[in-house]
Specification:
Length: 84
């Protein structure tokens, strides 16, 4: 039979694992939010040349790991189009 201190340790370990897991998810969502806000800013700055929905889709797909910088052509190049 498990003693009380062992049960407390197991409960604490499980709680810490859950906190770490959900904390990581929350951090990812914050990164996605920042990415999408940057997409919106780039759309305002670059107008019709910038594919905002494509940028937002990339934010979600890559979980905010790539955050566009409107002043860095390399970071926004995948979302630019040529107007004819």
């Amino acid at each position: 039979m498990m003693n009380t201190s062992f049960k407390k340790i197991v409960f604490l370990a499980a709680a810490l694992a859950l906190i770490a897991m959900f904390g990581h998810v929350a951090a990812d969502m914050a990164d996605v939010g920042m990415c999408i806000r940057n997409c919106a800013q780039c759309k305002k700055m670059l107008g019709a040349y910038f594919e905002g929905p494509l940028c937002a889709d990339a934010c979600v797909k890559f979980k905010g790991k790539m955050i566009p910088d409107c002043e860095n052509i390399e970071s926004v190049a995948p979302f630019l189009n040529k107007l004819e």
